[in-house]
Write a structure and sequence with these properties.
23% strand; 375 residues; alpha+beta; Mannose-Binding Protein A, Chain A; 4-stranded mixed β-sheet; 3 domains; 23% helix; elongated; Immunoglobulin-like; 4-stranded antiparallel β-sheet; single chain
């Protein structure tokens, strides 16, 4: 063998040994957190209590390690280059397992509403140890389907008020620790007057300078006059106003004029603002606008609720000044809470304000409340 060949072979040998390719090479020892991540990914050797201690995860004991490992085995930690994130998530799971709180928690109320002709019934939300999945069962479950991960419950056929006005079913939430919680729910269908949109009330047309136009060149609501004529009728004995176009019955007693409520209590709103779980932003327990309407008994009815922003906006007649010839005895010249949460800002809810303006505001603010029900 020539000298250059001997040198080449020697260099290769040194290279492979240095890379661990020779018999004397040793595989890199995994850290404790990497061992846990590897177990979550491949379900190999289960971590011990000592492994968690070395990973600086506290609270794992001989008593709870089987449950901890059961949850970890259902996770997938692929980004083991960021061990501090994995350690934080595992610590959170262990803390939940050791807490006295009963998981999972379903964040929905027992009653909800859906418009007829649509397929979405309700979006379930909940939190538990790890991710939460959902299922439905019970009386009307055969008419429903559920995406177990997103929690979207849908009607298999679009809801039709005339055929069925209420759906009763049981929601079951299951977390990664195989804990389950069930909630009996009812979805009430709101009747919709098909193909009968209300007129806006606008009877005149204006150009971009605010000047009235009468030659029909501006094709807006004032020109077309399309839709059902706005018609409100007040029942003085019941102190309610009925919208003849939508069938909605509105509270119209002295309480509307003086009653202000928070959408969410200060304590609940603090949890909402400081939590990464949006479910905290929908908790309306306590002295709130929602509970006020839910508990209201007025005009001989007890099925009142907080209106949506669309329903509140439908009270506005854009063809007249506020309160001009209004059948409402209590002024609509106020800012009223709706049940609609702002999509981009879950700590805010929408408000129908003075002069027809719509805006959203912090849920811990105080605003007026006018409840509604379907006639």
């Amino acid at each position: 063998m020539k000298i250059w060949q001997v040198l080449f072979v020697s260099v290769l040998a040194i290279f492979f040994m240095g890379c661990g390719g020779g018999k004397g090479g040793e595989a890199k020892e995994l850290s404790a957190i990497e061992k846990i991540a590897e177990y979550a990914l491949n379900n190999g050797t289960a971590p011990t209590v000592q492994t968690y201690i070395e990973a600086e995860v506290t609270g794992v004991t001989d008593k709870n390690i089987d449950k901890v490992n059961m949850v970890i085995a259902k996770l997938e930690y692929k980004n083991i280059d960021k061990p501090w994130i994995i350690q934080s998530e595992i610590q959170s799971i262990v803390n939940q397992i050791n807490s006295d709180e009963e998981y999972p928690i379903i964040g929905n109320w027992i009653f909800d509403y859906a418009l007829e002709n649509q397929t979405t019934a309700v979006v379930l939300n909940g939190r538990g140890i790890g991710r939460v999945t959902f299922s439905v069962s019970g009386t009307d479950a055969d008419s429903l389907s559920v995406d177990e991960n997103s929690g979207v419950v849908s009607f298999k056929s679009p809801a039709d008020y005339e055929t069925k006005s209420i759906y009763n079913f049981t929601v079951t939430a299951t977390d990664l620790a195989e804990n389950t919680t069930s909630l009996n729910m009812s979805i009430r269908i709101i009747d919709v007057i098909e193909s009968k949109l209300k007129k806006t009330g606008q009877t005149r047309s204006y150009d971009e300078n605010g000047s009235e136009v009468t030659d029909g060149i501006i094709h807006d609501d004032g020109h077309y006059q399309a839709g059902v004529t706005i018609s409100f009728v007040r029942d003085d004995s019941l102190e309610v106003v009925v919208d003849q176009a939508t069938g909605l019955m509105w509270q119209d007693n002295d309480e509307v004029n003086i009653n202000t409520k928070q959408w969410q209590t200060t304590e609940k709103n603090y949890l909402c603002v400081n939590s990464t779980d949006d479910a905290a932003c929908y908790d309306t327990q306590g002295d709130t606008a929602t509970t006020y309407c839910d508990n209201l008994v007025h005009g001989g009815y007890s099925d009142w609720r907080l209106p949506t922003i669309r329903e509140l906006n439908a009270l506005i007649d854009f063809g007249q000044s506020i309160d001009e010839d209004s059948v409402f005895s209590v002024s609509v010249h106020k800012d009223f809470w709706s049940s609609t949460t702002s999509v981009g800002w879950p700590q805010d809810a929408w408000i129908a304000g003075n002069y027809g303006n719509i805006y959203h505001n912090d849920k811990n603010r105080y605003h007026y409340v006018r409840c509604v029900r379907y006639k």
